[in-house]
């Protein structure tokens, strides 16, 4: 910390890679001493740079759901770590990094597909069976609502993650609310909508969080 003038302090944030090379640095000037810098879990959208707004979870074993019925299970999603300069109800991103190797996949056709952060995961009947790796993964609750007159086999889910705020406590992390996957038919064609229910998202005018219902929806028109 170095003086920057009357009533102002400078704080230098630096991050180094395992080899000791400087990879990120910012100087924060503030009339508070020291300035507030916060570290939060973040949806995996920012590293190595902003490439995708979605997370594609591929289940190692499919989830089979009877016709006209619901299924609830738990899994995990990759996350990143974000460093913010925080003042009142505003945040400014200083840095973001991941402690695991990033994987990406295309959901859908090469012409109209959506680039997603990708991870193979397991589905569990209860949350206690899921063991997310600290600082790398978050717990996710998934609800499948099958309104189709057939038994379905679910092998994947694509989750919209832009603006999502993750909950965390004691180094554990989870997605608040649920990821709801609704399967129905329109004119003989399967329609799969994924929506986030009771999930915290950032307000568009600020970066502070606001809890919304059905705030983000994604149409999985590339199959399930």
Task: Explain this structure.
The strands form six sheets. A five-stranded mixed sheet has the order 6-11-15-16-19, with no helix packed on it. Strands 9-10-5-12 form a four-stranded mixed sheet, with no helix packed on it. The protein has a three-stranded antiparallel sheet with strand order 1-2-3, with no helix packed on it. A hairpin with a 2-residue loop joins strand 1 and strand 2. It has a domain of 148 residues. The protein is 0% helix and 59% strand. It is mainly beta.
Search tags:
single chain; 224 residues; elongated; 4-stranded mixed sheet; 5-stranded mixed sheet; 19 strands
Q: What structural class do helix, strand and pairing data support?
A: mainly beta
Counting DSSP H or I runs of 4 or more residues, the number of helices is: 0
Helix content: under 10%
- Which outline best applies? elongated
Q: Gist?
A:
With 224 residues, the protein is mainly beta. It contains no helices and 19 strands.
SSE order and pairing:
Layout: E1 2-5, E2 8-16, E3 22-30, E4 37-42, E5 54-65, E6 69-78, E7 80-87, E8 90-97, E9 104-107, E10 114-121, E11 137-146, E12 152-160, E13 167-169, E14 172-174, E15 178-186, E16 189-197, E17 199-202, E18 209-212, E19 216-219
Parallel strand pairs: 5-10, 11-15
Antiparallel strand pairs: 1-2, 2-3, 4-7, 5-12, 6-11, 7-8, 9-10, 13-14, 15-16, 16-19, 17-18
């Amino acid at each position: 910390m170095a003086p920057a003038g009357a009533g102002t302090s400078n704080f230098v944030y630096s991050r180094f890679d395992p080899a000791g090379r400087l990879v990120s640095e910012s100087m924060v000037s503030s009339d508070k001493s020291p300035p507030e810098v916060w570290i939060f879990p973040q949806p995996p959208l920012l590293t190595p740079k902003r490439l995708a707004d979605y997370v594609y979870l591929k289940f190692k074993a499919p989830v089979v759901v009877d016709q006209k019925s619901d299924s609830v299970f738990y899994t995990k999603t990759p996350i990143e770590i974000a460093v913010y300069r925080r003042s009142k109800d505003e945040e400014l991103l200083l840095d973001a990094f991941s402690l695991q190797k990033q994987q990406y996949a295309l959901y859908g056709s090469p012409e109209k597909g959506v680039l997603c952060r990708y991870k193979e995961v397991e589905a569990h009947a209860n949350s206690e069976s899921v063991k997310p790796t600290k600082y790398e993964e978050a717990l996710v609750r998934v609800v499948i609502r099958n309104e189709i007159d057939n038994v379905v086999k679910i092998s994947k889910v694509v989750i919209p993650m832009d603006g999502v705020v993750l909950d965390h406590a004691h180094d554990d992390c989870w997605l608040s609310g649920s990821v709801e996957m609704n399967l129905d038919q329109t004119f003989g064609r399967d329609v799969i909508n994924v929506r986030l229910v009771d999930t915290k998202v950032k307000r568009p005018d600020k970066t502070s969080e606001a809890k919304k219902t059905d705030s983000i929806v994604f149409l999985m028109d590339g199959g399930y």
